[in-house]
Amino acid sequence: QKRPLAWADWKIVLGRRKLWGIYLGQFGINATQWFFLTWFPTYMVTYRHVSFAKSGLLEALPFLGAFAGVLLGGFVSDGLLRKGSSLTMARKLPIIVGMLLSSSIVVANYVSDPLSISACLTIAFFGCGFGSITWSLVSAIAPERLIGLTGGGFNFIGNLAAIVVPLAIGFLIKGNDFTRPLIAVSAMALVGAGSYIFL
């Protein structure tokens, strides 16, 4: 039966703790993604002084890692479900593990070899991909008649990272020092993981 959208529907979509868990989680996982889509080349060339020729190959590795993570996250989640795990466990575990791996981006602050830097960033972006099955939880916990509205809220809050993260990184850079931006991206991923664990 069709029902018009009412203010009470907004109250449901914006008032449930579990839904805020996935909204904030999506922001956290998108934070890592938007670092890679905006500041990553600048980080490698300007701050880490990796030549453009070398940088091309080293910059490809994290994206290949993310590609592998996206596929593996789905396989692991479905495999857990087939082995008898609850829907909640099968969906949340890869997301949480992925975001914890994403938070390892901060380790790049403590290595200096270009290959080691790329390895750290590859692990972080792999984690971002591995945890990218977040939409499966939207369909699982959203009120059935409000999946569209819930999905809109999920996308809106999650994709605020596309605005906040590039601006925050630009604000946090001191000269060519990316230490604080990487700490911030790592912290956002940890907040996202925490939102799935506690909310």
List keywords for this structure.
199 residues; 78% helix; mainly alpha; 0% strand
How far the N terminus sits from the C terminus, by CA atoms, comes to 32 Å
Mean of all residue-level pLDDT scores: 92
Structural class estimated from helices and strands: mainly alpha
Question: How many beta strands in the DSSP annotation?
Answer: 0
Q: Name the beta content range.
A: under 5%
Shape: globular
Distinct helical segment count: 10
Cα Rg: 18 Å
Largest sheet: none
Task: Write a brief caption for the model.
Helix content is 78%, strand content 0%. The chain has 199 residues and is mainly α. The two termini are 32 Å apart.
Question: Can you walk through the features of this model?
Answer:
The chain has 199 residues and is mostly helical. It starts with 6 loop residues before the first helix and ends with a helix. The chain is 78% helix and 0% strand. The chain has helices spanning 7-15, 17-38, 40-47, 52-82, 87-102, 114-130, 135-141, 147-159, 161-172, 179-198. It is globular and about 60 Å long.
SSE layout and pairing:
Blueprint: H1 7-15, H2 17-38, H3 40-47, H4 52-82, H5 87-102, H6 114-130, H7 135-141, H8 147-159, H9 161-172, H10 179-198
Helix pairs in contact: 2-8, 2-9, 2-10, 4-5, 4-6, 5-6, 5-10, 9-10
